[in-house]
Design a protein that fits this description.
The protein is mostly helical and 164 residues long. A two-stranded antiparallel ribbon has the order 1-2. Helix 2 runs antiparallel to helix 4. The protein is elongated and about 60 Å long.
Length: 164
């Protein structure tokens, strides 16, 4: 994945997901069930404004950090990068391609985190439509399974790239 394309995709995706969170939050009650037990029953509540602010901060802040941190670390000469065979991959003739891959790969992970957070928000909105609020345990489990399968594939691709 080209790092310019991944930057553009993330630059479009984050505002779209922020708008989704903002607009769908209007369906939430004034006091939002925001924490749920293992059985899906609500066991923590907060004002809607606080929930929306926290969710927007998470959905924008965490992916942004994940997207730009690898590039910042790679831009420091690679001394802070922890990749297999670092000396080989950061040699002058390979450094530019290595950094581009790391940046694009980090932004791909940021996209996955952003989608997961938006999905969790959607589950919270759906849970709050019920009386009493109940989070779909099937929904959150399915979301976690998909996210962890993606994470495993993402890690495999990262490690496979830097094998010699």
């Amino acid at each position: 994945m080209n790092h310019r394309f991944s930057t553009l995709a993330l630059s479009v995706l984050l505002p779209v997901l922020a708008a989704f969170i903002w607009l769908s939050s209007s369906a939430l009650p004034e006091v939002v069930a925001s924490h749920f037990g293992v059985n899906g029953a609500a066991n923590g509540f907060m004002p809607r404004g606080a929930y929306v602010a926290i969710m927007l901060a998470l959905a924008l802040g965490l992916p942004s950090l994940l997207a730009f941190l690898p590039g910042a670390l790679a831009g420091q000469g690679g001394t802070n990068l922890n990749i297999p065979n670092r000396e080989y991959w950061l040699a002058p003739e390979r450094r530019e391609n290595t950094v581009a891959f790391i940046v694009a790969h980090g932004r791909l992970f940021a996209v996955a985190v952003a989608f997961f957070l938006a999905y969790v928000h959607w589950l919270v909105v759906r849970a709050n439509a019920l009386r009493p609020p109940v989070l779909s345990t099937t929904g959150i489990t399915a979301g976690l399974v998909v996210f962890f399968v993606f994470l495993a594939a993402w890690l495999f691709a990262l490690l496979a790239k830097f094998r010699r």
